[in-house]
Request: fold
Amino acid sequence: MKTSIKNIAIVMAMVLIMGSVSIGVRTEALTPNNEPSTETLGSGQEPAEPGALEPGQNESGQNGETEYQPPEQYPEEPPGDPEPTASTGGAPDGQTPTEPSGSELSGPEATDPGDLNLDGGPESDGGSEDDNPGETFAEEYAEQPAPWMFGNARRSMSLLSSGTPSAKVVDPNVVSEGQLAPGQVRMTKTAAPVAGKVNTWDITLRVAGRPQLVTSDIVVVIDVSGSMGYAIDGMPNDRLYYAKEAARNFVTTVLAADPQNTKISIVSFSGYNSSGSGNTATIRQGLTNDKDALHLAINDLSVAGSSTQYTHTQSGIAKAREVLASASSTAMKKTIVLFSDGLPNRNFSINTPVVADFYSGNQSQRLSRKDLAESRFNCGDSVSDNATALTVGTGQNRVSYYYSSPNSAIAEGAIARGKGYTVYAIGMYAGTDGQQTLYEIADLGKSYASDAAGLNAVFQQIAGQLGSPVSTASITDPMASGFIIADTGTISKTGGTTTYDANTNTLSWNFPLLTQSGAGDIKYEQLTYRIVITENTPYVTGNTLLPTNGTTPMSFTDVEGKASVNNFPIPQVDPVFVTLDKVVLDSSGNPISSTKDFTITIDNVNYVIKADDPIKVIKKVWNVGNYLVSETADPNYITSYMVNSVATQQLSLAQAGADQNAVVTNKMRPPSAVDVDIEGEKTLTGRALADEEFEFKLYSSTASGTEGALLDTVKNIGGGFTFER
Reply:
């Protein structure tokens, strides 16, 4: 095809040179089915645009979707933001911003997906003005579904969202579960000792609420761009078929729950090929509780034709806002449910763009902002993704800024949320970038990624959330210092998903809505897990209680659609500690310093301790019961035991019982009595001693040398004397 087009271009150039000549050119190319086709271009016909692809073809001329390639990086430009010049359009340095080439599936409007020629694209009648716009635009970005994408719906949720405490949450110490008023929520968290264990507790979080019937207006916004007509591998129908099926079931479910207070509107969107066009989004059905009318509007949806085959997500959200801002929308709760299968590539232009409307940086970063206000957009004028929006400076200081369709759609989502509307976003085969855009469009926790098989489940989950006192709940539950979940197998829940980070000792619990039935019409969800103390548990004495957890916030949407964050109460427990103290006495019973190691055994565990050491605190899990305190015998000491000031070797460990303070005392044994003879000699100078000439006395003495009592008196025999004992 490209070769044939090139030949046509050469011939046309010759015609222009030769003047006005009537000439017919016969070209042969492959049709989407790889069959030769013959076309004749006369003087009244325009040639195909060079480089363009037939609908449903890739660059090789084969059937299939053109794979999206990111735009090339622009070269760096001089830093700084020069003053704007009069130019607000055109491409940098006279060049057109690079946009992906190729075309999406296009064709005439079809009343049913089966009317589309999905194998080779729609049949052509030789071309029309719409089929050959004067300006080349970026194709719609949509990924071909991969085999792994078939299965259950996948969702993207955030752990925490911004929000203020909901007034719907009651004080659990004041209001019981049975006393909840419609729309109210009760959050409780308790710690219960585990039977037969000491220093082990079951923590239970419970979220309960009573449903409230509130007036609700819902706008379902459905993408009908060209890629919605793509076939799905292994499935009999195209993407739009399954989107319509899920949307019908959504309408049925929501209206069945509360038909008197609920109204639904259907909006479809795509995007024009040419710039300057307005909002292609269409209100297919205004707000109503007529299920049949809504089903009919959904059934009538069809894939957009070639002139409006692109993805203008911003226009769909803007049209939904228009519905919810109209006089017909009087509900307390207003919701937008957006569905798309691709990355946006059309957006509204900016009113008189200025540098502040764009991000700074290199050329690929100078894109329109995600936080632009509603007043900055011109909803009557649409442009292509990556189109030049503003050029400032001259010469080497010339800098251009560009539109970003994804950023504009994100800004539109923020505008809707800012007006108090709850925004859900569902992506089907939207690709990584497309899904990220939908994530940023939606309220936190309200974006979903799905395939065709899981789409109905996603819509049904959203339907359930709309009437729940609590929806899209995300709970972050950190353990307090010194407490851990030692066995993750103890984590049990009624619904949702949990993850435990052992590095931070934090448990996360997410659930979409309250699904369990309690007494009467109460709905609830409940989570239980088991904690134990560790060596890091703070040591406290007496009846001092310790918190089991840190601040535990629940981020959720309340019955009025308000993003809220409320905290659970924090349980407190009284761990049982066992302390060991070593005391060493001299033989007289006086405390003395000692660095000698003593080994004390409790429950088959040996603890080495010195008298000069601080008191040893044992922090562990015990079985309820009595335990013997014993010490390895040392013949040089007399050992005695005291537990809580009572002479005993027995520890008594019970749930919420008293701490056990064991003191092991070692008294040095006094020296044993022995029989000794004390001998001495006496000499005189000049003569010999006569027997019994001298008398000798023996006294007791203190350790300091102070004389005590007389013990014995002896006389000399010759030159010696002896005290015999």
Notes: The domain at 147-157+213-350+404-466 is CATH 3.40.50.410 (Rossmann fold). Residues 1-162 have pLDDT under 50 and may be disordered. The CA atoms of residues 518 and 524 lie 7 Å apart. The longest strand covers residues 523-533.
